[in-house]
Amino acid sequence: MWPYGIVTHVTSVTRPLPGASPGYAAHVRRLIELTRYIAALPALGAILGSLVLMGVGIIEVIKAITILIQTWANTKEVVVAVLTAIDTLLLATVLMVIGYGIYELFVDEGLNLPSWLEIRSLDDLKNKLIGVIVAIIGVIFLGILVDATNPDDVLQVGIGCGAVLIGLAAFTLATRRK
Description:
By secondary structure, the protein is mainly α. It has helices at 24-34, 40-70, 75-106, 122-147, 151-175. It has one domain.
């Protein structure tokens, strides 16, 4: 040990601090274990945000139906409105998956969820999020494709979307567990 109490080697984590009571380490361990429940707050926030966006998405679908009824001939406007609603609903899904995932990983593994939504590790959460992000990128690109008047704009956005998708695929392959 160096002067002034600086430790030069790693000691066992089960060894209590000198002069501490025997139950001190157990109390600290329990306190650290309980901090995982703080993760319920961002999980709840993500789920509540998801519900808000779902409401907004449903309102956008109703607006799209209204546009369709009022202007039967303007299908392009209806398609853009529906794609905007789908984009909002997909983002709501991302927030819900994040909320469920954080809750499952940190607070309670016993949620009654469909098997495809069960998240057992950060890799599971990452893969589910990447899948939804890919769908959102596709919807955004489709909306731009439908609404575009300049082919160069579509090409530029398509290249950008493709680059992001390639990056996500590379990230998924590089971090995949064997």
